[in-house]
Design a protein that fits this description.
two-stranded antiparallel sheet; 4 helices
């Protein structure tokens, strides 16, 4: 929730910075910065675990990292006032996460 909230706030700032019509270039730079910064946050969520017995590496946290990135995108949509896009995106994300969880239980 905090990632989404922060992304929304960063998006709202140039929209309400005092100008009647902020430039699309300024908003584009903010969105690019959010995507890059949250990408680093998601990269920290991904863990590579090596086990001594199998001598193989396992990667964990890809789904969590992707969910963090999507939550930032939902925050950007909310900050831009695109509530319909945000709602559809949130519903699709929820659906995907439930399907992935079901597939993981089957393996």
């Amino acid at each position: 929730m905090l990632v989404s909230f922060g992304a929304a706030l960063f998006t709202i700032i140039p929209l309400q910075a005092g100008t009647a019509h902020p430039s699309a270039d300024a908003l584009s730079r903010v969105i690019q910065g959010i995507a890059a910064g949250v990408g680093f946050l998601g990269a920290g969520e991904i863990l590579r675990v090596s086990s001594e017995q199998s001598r193989q590496s396992e990667i964990h946290g890809l789904t969590s990292a992707a969910a963090i990135w999507v939550s930032a995108a939902l925050g950007i949509a909310a900050g831009c006032g695109l509530w319909q896009t945000g709602l559809i995106g949130a519903l699709l994300c929820f659906l995907v996460l439930k399907v992935v969880k079901k597939w993981e239980k089957e393996d």
